[in-house]
Amino acid sequence: MEGASLGALVGAGLCVLFIICMIFLREPVQKSARKKSKKVVDVGLGGERRVRITERKSYGPTSAEDVAAANLESLLKDLRKARNPGQRAIIVTKVQRRFDELSPPLLDILGTEEHHLLLPAIFLASALKQEDAVSPLTHLTQSGPLKIQVAALIGAHAIEPWSEGELLAFLNSTQVPKLVAVLELLAQRKSRPLAAIFEMLAYPDQRVRSAAVRAVPRLQADSEPLLWLCKRVQKSKGKAAVAAVLAIGRAGVPEGSEECLVERFSSRDWRVRRAALNAIANMGRPISNPECVLSILRGKDLPLKEGACAFIALERTRTLPVDKLRAMVPNLHPLLRMFAARCLVAAGDKSAVPVLIDLLSTQESVDVDDEAAVCARESAHQILTEICNKDLGTDVEPWQRWHRKLASLAPRDLRLAAPTFW
Fold first, then answer.
1. Under a CB-based contact definition with an 8 Å cutoff, are residues 122 and 151 in contact?
2. How confident is the model over 57-102, as pLDDT tens digits?
3. Is the dihedral of CA 183, 184, 186, 187 positive or negative?
4. CB 156 within 8 A of CB 162
5. Where a domain ends, among 160, 186, 213?
6. If we measure between CA atoms, which residue out of 236, 143, 355, 70 comes closest to residue 152?
7. Rounded CA gap, 211 and 52, in Å?
8. Is the Cβ–Cβ distance between 187 and 175 less than 8 Å?
């Protein structure tokens, strides 16, 4: 028995020693955030669970440049999602505070034509006025997708304005969005290459013609550019003539050019006639010969849109021949009666009020479609409310009671803009 007990003790001691040795011989556990053990459970073909220990890969230390690039990309994604100037300004300020850190990765993106964050990067560089971004932006104006070229063109100008010669070189492009952008940049200059701008008034695409009109500056009477424009109006036809007429309106319609526009009132092209009326409306002074506009309003089968343009020209220029306007009101279409009433209100003529009250009951008929009837009723109601400084509703009787107490009507410029339902 003693021999057996001794043998059992020896065996137990050996087991303990073996366990201790195994503990000391095991590889130390790494307490690193970059290297951890992960238990994976596999299911065998027979459904048995086999447990194995795998280790995640260990990566080297991340460089400061990589961190900066990741931070910039995050901000650019936020910038791309921003929907208003305030949100964009906040992001620009964040980058500005870390400019030294984020500037290098921003330049790297600008040097990559196909980068998915190139558009917000261009905006950011221009907002920061980053001078060393001009070179990559200049390169982008000639390469890559068209929207990138246009954005780079505008962005580079925001940092360092293009010279007149450089902008004129861009006008040789055949890409409409780029031409529009160049004309918009030319419109910001005090000194503008008028000859080049005038040539674009005849461009086939309407977007370019419209941008060219917006680029025309105010011109002095009897100046050479104005005389050239008047000749262009007389010789041009169709869409080019419309653009030339609108350009004169943009130039302020100096004294010498009003007659040039009046001559276009008799054009067979309704677009030219309407453009001439719009140009007259924008000239900022009374019309020298009001009869030329009144004769349009007396014409038979007068198109509503053309008649509206004629009344708007009278109202905006404060050319208000009250007696003649009163005389034509009864024979006008309800919509044109509303425009005539606006002119009478501007002149301070009390006869405008019963005209407006009568328009409150305008209904659809053979000669008046639903859209015109609604526009006449609603506009009359809004004008009356503005005059009265109180909304008496859309029924006629309350307004008639108010009118009976109305002693006079002061001249006024209506805050309510003339409707442009077309």
1. yes
2. 433 446 889 999 999 999 999 999 998 999 999 999 999 999 999 9
3. positive
4. yes
5. 160
6. 143
7. 71
8. no
